[in-house]
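Lecture 7 notes: from sequence to structure.
We start with the chain below.
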Amino acid sequence: MCDDLRYNYVVDANQNGSNIEIVEFKEFLKIFELNEEELDAMPLPSFDFLLSSDAIIKKKKPKGYLIIKMKQ
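Predicted structure tokens for the same chain:
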């Protein structure tokens, strides 16, 4: 499963009336009729829009992380 914080957040949300289905990754791919090889072959979208002055991300730490990742 994914990390405990995310899992616990989903469990708490479900207990408070949300209806979030927890699925394994392979099941998630089946929903979209994909396999891991097809997913890996897909092009990655550009995230340049996140660095624009009117971007949703305003904090510097995540923005810096994105810049580093985009240069790799």
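Points to note: Residues 51 and 63 are 7 Å apart (CA to CA). The helical segments are 4-15, 25-31, 36-41, 60-71.
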